[in-house]
User: What shape does this take?
Amino acid sequence: MFGEVGVSPNDFYKMTFAEIILMLRGHNIKQAREWEKARLIAYQVYVSIPKKAPNKSITNYFPLVTDKLNGKQYNAEMLKARRQAFLENMPEN
Assistant: This one.
């Protein structure tokens, strides 16, 4: 457990219960963001493949536990808009 959250055993035993809870919440948020990144990449590949049926929403294609917490329902158009906004705001080298 110590290595997963980046805390040495010595520091862990010095922490209060509240600090441990906050540390674990932060770790869970970090893990959820990593899953959201993986889902976004997988969904971008999925929507780029031509098909006759309409694309599923990202939450139907790759549901995550955090979907109910965030309350967001992504679709292909929203992802295209976010990608375009990202590309427009990228600095040029």
